[in-house]
Amino acid sequence: MTDVSIPNYDKNNMPKTTKSAVLEKVFDIDMKDTKLKEMGPTDVLIKVVAVGICGSDVHYYDQGHIGNFVVKKPLILGHESSGVIVAVGDKVTKFKRGDRVAMEPGVPCGHCEACRTGHYNLCPNMQFMATPPVNGDLTQFIVYPQDFVYPIPENVSYEEATLNEPLSVGVHATQKLGVDVGSSVLISGMGPIGLLAILAAKAHGADQIIVSDAEQSRLDVAKKLGATNAVNIKNADVLDTVKTLTNGVGVDYAIEASGTVPGEQTSLHALKRGGKVAYIGVPTTDQTPLDVPFMTDHETTIMGIFRYCNNYQTGLKILAKNTKLVDNLLTNFYPLDQTKAALEKSRTDKSNSIKVIIYPNEQLRK
């Protein structure tokens, strides 16, 4: 793996500020020195090496809000990240200086009912990076609790480790659905989450993985990752294809990651009787019509997927087994001071970009 420089910091010699990419308002990114949080006894100081741009970052950049989450004051974007530990608190037991790590971007309260019953992703007090008003990690350094930091496997690069955040969503979906050995799965929408859901479905034993999207370049990547059939919705009907491939029965499971109304409906109707669908993508409309007679007649199980819970380490293990495959998703690389250009690339060029990476410190790839 590529080596990066490790500053000589400790608890008595900590930086006070960090250079950050700050969203001032819609389409306005500014480079600023922002205040660094004081390190507590169980915190670590991380030099952020790589950050992946997520669709949510783009939405905050060009829309200023996602649902009820509104950017009301300057916000540091970014939540798909990896880095190296450069200092540790007095009571840190899991890590040492020089450890390569990935950061799970949501820190729950640990006390509410959701947290106490093992569903911390539903914590109403969640502090999730780059979700207003919580700052993200498009910054050179970040102080973070050791309990939400995970070692990067030796054969996984910093850039590949950033993919663990979207991969963990797919892992959560496959686990909630109960995807099992020999099963069939439809995955709708080949953005990074949909693409990485292919690896999650494979890891849980799926035998037939049908994917759909309107971008042929992304469907080509999906085939490389292990999709058995790829449907370009511009040229073919997804439901007809699913019926043909499953002898008219339908798939066991569906994962909807496109966030489109047609995708939401198609994923439901592609199910066999007794099938299960997980909705990851969020449509821009307030409500999505669903076929209730179909659901009752087929006794379908429908579930929403919100981020992930207790599977960040599982995602890293899957990445470690698929490094050559996931490298196909890493398409564009920018330094921190070109964050606006990186966001524009992700926003406007879906044919030629899948995962855009920003380097808050030294640039490792061009």
UniProtKB/TrEMBL annotation:
EC number in record: 1.1.1.14
EC class of the enzyme, as a word: oxidoreductase
Domain of life: Bacteria
Any one Gene Ontology molecular-function term assigned to this protein's record: L-iditol 2-dehydrogenase (NAD+) activity
Gene3D superfamilies noted in UniProt: Medium-chain alcohol dehydrogenases, catalytic domain, NAD(P)-binding Rossmann-like Domain
UniProt cross-references to Pfam families, sorted A to Z: ADH_N, ADH_zinc_N
Keyword Oxidoreductase: yes
SMART domains recorded: PKS_ER
Essential cofactor(s): Zn(2+)
InterPro entries: ADH-like_C, ADH-like_N, ADH_Zn_CS, ER, GroES-like_sf, NAD(P)-bd_dom_sf, SDH-like
Keywords annotated in UniProt: Metal-binding, Oxidoreductase, Zinc
Tagged with keyword NADP: no
Cited PROSITE patterns: ADH_ZINC
Occurrences of domain Enoyl reductase (ER) (ranges): 21-358
Family from the record: Belongs to the zinc-containing alcohol dehydrogenase family.
UniProt protein name: Sorbitol dehydrogenase
Native source organism of the sequence: Fructilactobacillus fructivorans
